[in-house]
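---------- Forwarded message ----------

FYI, see the Endophilin-B2 record below. Original note from H. follows.
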Amino acid sequence: MEFSVKKLASDAGVFFSRAVQFTEEKLGQAEKTELDAHFENLLARADITKNWTEKILHQTEILLQPNPSARVEEFLYEKLDRKVPSRVTNGELLAQYMVEAANDFGPGTPYGKTLLKVGETQKRLGGAERDFMHSASISFLNPLRNFLEGDWRTITKERRILENRRLDLDACKARLKKAKAAEAKASAEHELRLAQTEFDRQAEVTRLLLEGISSTHVNHLRCLHEFVESQTTYYAQGYQYMLDLQKQLGRFPGTFVGNVESSSPPPATTSPTTVAASIPAVPIVGAPNAATAVEGALTLNDVKPPASGTRKARVLYDYEAADSSELALLADEMITVYSLPGMDPDWLIGERGNKKGKVPVTYLELLS
């Protein structure tokens, strides 16, 4: 108990001495030991690294998980050292709703069939998003967190110790200046030497830690490259999934044939799905109704383009023909297009030289 009281009194005396020295420095009544320029640059660089790392980490977390409640939940699970429960992505949830809607509307109907296709793609997009979030968290977020929660805390601790050692050193210098008697001067000089030794030792420890910031930058640079690779893979997958979906939707020539049987006319619109209405229709001899017209259009043997009224179109994307009734397309080429009576408005007849076949409207830019 006696030892504890003495230690407490000693610590209180040291704290009081540092407080006096710090206050006098702020008031300009005491000298302050200045660190060399290189050391100051290291301190500034470390502070900048810490500040920007915090900002980049926070914004990346928002990018990967925009829901603040979900971020708080994940933070709590990490602090409790428990596994974060699997969470359905927005794309996967949308896919679930589309599939359920398709089952209610009828999976065999044009709308239901399309909902199933789009829902399947949304599910694949959601899975790609999940993989990206997992990869980015491991390769990018975790190293940034480890720096802030590990290396930076150590640096902060050692800097605090260095500041205390500096205050002790300057307090010893002040006492030496005030000492008058020889014995007091000798005691002050001894304390000054000890304080200088402690300060130099702590300055060297802190300097080594601050110089390690360069290694931190190298590590974060490598992690940044991995993050970019993960993001590139994610967007490439999404782009490919949507291209595949676009081709699948373009290969449903009969998707909207049911609209022909509707008693009410389709609403006026300028969307690509009805742009075929402005294409001159070629009558098919011997086609008694719309259904046989469409069947005849699939063979394309006796179809002749009109002498006037055809339109030119520029191909926007490459298109691979699904069967012999379709015409393969190459981006930027020019073709002649026209429609057939009763034909699905999402499709046109395209001609290029002596080749002829169905082409999807969404792949074309119709020219005047």
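H. also flagged this: Helices lie at 2-26, 37-64, 68-79, 90-105, 110-178, 182-211, 213-250, 290-299.
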